[in-house]
């Protein structure tokens, strides 16, 4: 699905990613953990095409295409979805309006006709049921006056509507109560299939109990310093990130 | 101004122009005398100059240097040429004024409710010996352009609602500048007289068709009786070479309500003065305005709300969206007089600059002489939220589209206040169509 090679990136001249190698086969879910400031969101943002990060070295191949050469909207149309750590509020643009624009953009990109209004609303009805949102909520401005948990549900709702090939979910599980966590987890599992892959950025093992990842990676100071199976999450939960200094030394050598 | 002041050559032109058309202007001999006094007032004051505080940011030089003429008759315009300006599904009575002349064939005024008069302003003046060009109840204040209009006005809409009547459908008044001949002017004047407990919604729509330069100078006077309600929706879509100046004066009696919505989209230069005087208790006024100049358009909105007595309410919100090399001006004055205790007023002005070359001067101006009042005001000037732009792009919307959607959403809150869906959709589409890449998103709203 996606292959990241020796990715270096900086913001305002400050290096943040310092050589990331990551391979995610079709159908797999990979978790990325790591302490605050290690570069997880930076990696996610770069995959989605945020321009303030400058890629100084390396490459990203997605479904055989050079991902970094595509504009953010083209990436979205190619099936990349970013679940934001901090979803923005856009008063005045309803969730429905945004989604119709998004669905139509995708269809246009693939040379398909616009979505039929009735069909679209049926899709909305079906997906809001999965995430426990009301019609009233989706008619409101994008994330307007939503609580932290509601914003994360909304990210999952959008993901379900857009059915991406690669979902990059940046701490979609942070700040959620257990019910909301289950909603988020079931949303992710619902899309799990041999032709879709997911990158889960998380701080908590709790999510990984509901969405069991194929691999877990630890990002530290802009590098992946350790990778393993789901059990790595348990180790990290027990030991914290204290031993990462030595891991990093090992990774550099 | 001193009496010995030199009359500028361009003023000379208008004196001669008045002499040329005077005989054909509608109204009694008395009203001709009124007109000629107004002409004198105009000729003495001349065009407003940037030296005047109220005209600091707006130069009428391009108007002043030309010699505009009254059209003796309208150019032929077919309804088809106006289709684009008729909001889809709008069920309305209609008055069409072309090049300053009421067009009965294109208008549609059948089936008016009993007690409601809607007719051509020229006919009103001609048929009533005692009719004056300016409403007696209203003081238009010394403005040389309103004086010019009083002297020259050829036609417009006259609306009168008897006590306890309701104009059943909105009245759509379209003033068209055909733009066929160069340097023409339209001097259109509307008057609305709303009796006690009556209600009317009027859409004043100014449009330009051709490519020639013209000057549209318009005045609307409204006398809003006790507990009456006027909704006025002003949509300004002059053509690229149209110079538009318009003034609105409302006098509000006890318990009356005025909702004024302004949408400025067109014209090379537009200057709009919107005034309400709340002369008796518990009157309420709402001014909402969106101005969206792009390219080299210049739009200047001046408003004045005068709270003269107790317990009145005003709510004012203006939003500007400026692109290209556009220039915007907003000056919102709230006057709360000594006797206007318990006034509750709020004014906000927000502007969005879409380009480094666009510029806006926005100023709320509060003058308060009463001590027991609530008066809030705020003013912001900003750019699009880049995080929101990226959010939309990350969902598949292209760069231009994302910017158009966000810009539009900024203005949308005020469009939604109109409360008449076909108008809201029309205005929405018109705003979006002005923004690069916006057309694609018109139908989603
Ligand atoms: N736009 C920016 N400008 C300046 N510095 C930035 C910017 N974005 C990120 N950084 C810096 O880059 C580093 C990595 O940030 P990033 O947000 O990727 O961390 P993270 O792993 O997602 O952390 P968290 O777990 O707190 O979300 C931090 O030191 C951060 O301060
Ligand atoms: Mg982060």
Automatic annotation (TrEMBL), chain A:
<keyword id="KW-0067">ATP-binding</keyword>
<keyword id="KW-0547">Nucleotide-binding</keyword>
<feature type="domain" description="ABC transporter">
    <location>
        <begin position="2"/>
        <end position="246"/>
    </location>
</feature>
<dbReference type="GO" id="GO:0005524">
    <property type="term" value="F:ATP binding"/>
</dbReference>
<dbReference type="Pfam" id="PF00005">
    <property type="entry name" value="ABC_tran"/>
</dbReference>
<protein>
    <submittedName>
        <fullName>FeS assembly ATPase SufC</fullName>
    </submittedName>
</protein>
<dbReference type="InterPro" id="IPR003593">
    <property type="entry name" value="AAA+_ATPase"/>
</dbReference>
<dbReference type="InterPro" id="IPR027417">
    <property type="entry name" value="P-loop_NTPase"/>
</dbReference>
<dbReference type="GO" id="GO:0016887">
    <property type="term" value="F:ATP hydrolysis activity"/>
</dbReference>
<comment type="similarity">
    <text>Belongs to the ABC transporter superfamily. Ycf16 family.</text>
</comment>
<dbReference type="InterPro" id="IPR010230">
    <property type="entry name" value="FeS-cluster_ATPase_SufC"/>
</dbReference>
<dbReference type="InterPro" id="IPR003439">
    <property type="entry name" value="ABC_transporter-like_ATP-bd"/>
</dbReference>
Automatic annotation (TrEMBL), chain B:
<comment type="similarity">
    <text>Belongs to the iron-sulfur cluster assembly SufBD family.</text>
</comment>
<feature type="compositionally biased region" description="Basic and acidic residues">
    <location>
        <begin position="23"/>
        <end position="38"/>
    </location>
</feature>
<dbReference type="InterPro" id="IPR055346">
    <property type="entry name" value="Fe-S_cluster_assembly_SufBD"/>
</dbReference>
<dbReference type="InterPro" id="IPR037284">
    <property type="entry name" value="SUF_FeS_clus_asmbl_SufBD_sf"/>
</dbReference>
<feature type="region of interest" description="Disordered">
    <location>
        <begin position="23"/>
        <end position="53"/>
    </location>
</feature>
<protein>
    <submittedName>
        <fullName>FeS assembly protein SufD</fullName>
    </submittedName>
</protein>
<dbReference type="Pfam" id="PF01458">
    <property type="entry name" value="SUFBD_core"/>
</dbReference>
<feature type="domain" description="SUF system FeS cluster assembly SufBD N-terminal">
    <location>
        <begin position="32"/>
        <end position="173"/>
    </location>
</feature>
<feature type="domain" description="SUF system FeS cluster assembly SufBD core">
    <location>
        <begin position="183"/>
        <end position="410"/>
    </location>
</feature>
<dbReference type="InterPro" id="IPR045595">
    <property type="entry name" value="SufBD_N"/>
</dbReference>
<dbReference type="GO" id="GO:0016226">
    <property type="term" value="P:iron-sulfur cluster assembly"/>
</dbReference>
<dbReference type="InterPro" id="IPR000825">
    <property type="entry name" value="SUF_FeS_clus_asmbl_SufBD_core"/>
</dbReference>
<dbReference type="InterPro" id="IPR011542">
    <property type="entry name" value="SUF_FeS_clus_asmbl_SufD"/>
</dbReference>
<dbReference type="Pfam" id="PF19295">
    <property type="entry name" value="SufBD_N"/>
</dbReference>
